[in-house]
Design a protein that fits this description.
single chain; alpha/beta; Nucleotidyltransferase, domain 5
C-alpha cells in the first residue's frame, strides 16, 4: 500500500452507497504516524467478515482518533446518495474531534468544508489510512443493519445488509417497502409505483 506520510493524517471512506435500505456510514481514522500493521489491512470489500471483525479492534486500539458519520435513508432520499455520502464524510471528520494536517478520501471528491482534504481514486486499495477507514465504516454499517434485521426480519438485512440481492428484491415484492428503504432508488421505486 502507498500513502506513507508524516504528521496527523486522516483517512476517510464510506460504506453503503449501493444498498436499497439503511444509512450511508463514513469513518475518519486519524493516525499520528504510520504504525507497524497487519499485512491484511485492505479495502473492506476484499476482506471476509471475519477478517474485518478481527482488524476492527486493532484499528480502534492503535489509531489516534476515530470519527463516525451517518447520513440516514431520509437524507439520502432528500439530497441524493452522492451528497449524502459527502455529508457523512464531513460528519465523520467532525466527530473525530481533531483537524488532521491532511485527510485522504476514497474517491474523486475532496471535502469542500475542509481545505486539507485530498481525493484518492481507489484509495481503499492503495492507502493504509483509507483502508482502515473502509474497515471501520463497513463494520459499523453492518452492525447497524444487523440491528435493523431484528426490527424487520422479513428482509434478511443481517445477510444482505440492504444490498439489492435477488432475495431482498423478492422480500420487497412480498412485504412491501420498509420504513428504512431508500424510496428514490430504482429498485425500491418500482414497488412504489413511481
Amino acid at each position: 500500500m502507498v500513502c506513507t506520510l508524516t504528521g496527523l493524517i486522516g483517512g476517510i471512506d464510506e460504506a453503503g452507497r449501493g444498498p436499497l435500505a439503511g444509512p450511508v456510514v463514513s469513518s475518519c481514522v486519524v493516525w499520528r504516524s504510520l504504525p507497524d500493521h497487519p499485512k491484511k489491512i485492505n479495502d473492506s470489500k476484499l476482506l471476509s467478515p471475519k477478517q474485518r471483525s478481527d482488524l476492527f479492534p486493532w484499528i480502534q486500539q492503535h489509531a489516534f482518533k476515530i470519527g463516525i458519520g451517518i447520513a440516514t435513508h431520509e437524507e439520502i432520499d432528500k439530497i441524493n446518495i452522492l451528497r449524502a455520502s459527502l455529508l457523512s464524510m464531513e460528519r465523520a471528520l467532525h466527530n473525530s474531534g481533531v483537524e488532521p494536517n491532511l485527510v485522504l478520501i476514497d474517491g474523486r471528491f475532496a471535502l469542500q468544508s475542509y481545505p486539507h482534504s485530498r481525493p484518492v481514486v481507489k484509495g481503499d486499495r492503495k492507502c493504509f489510512y483509507i483502508a482502515c477507514a473502509s474497515i471501520v465504516a463497513k463494520v459499523t454499517r453492518d452492525t447497524i443493519m444487523n440491528r435493523y434485521d431484528l426490527e424487520y426480519p422479513q428482509y434478511n438485512f443481517r445477510k444482505n445488509k440492504g444490498y439489492p440481492t435477488k432475495d431482498h428484491r423478492l422480500a420487497i415484492k412480498q412485504h412491501g417497502v420498509s420504513p428504512i428503504h431508500r424510496k428514490t432508488f430504482k429498485g425500491v421505486r418500482e414497488f412504489l409505483g413511481v
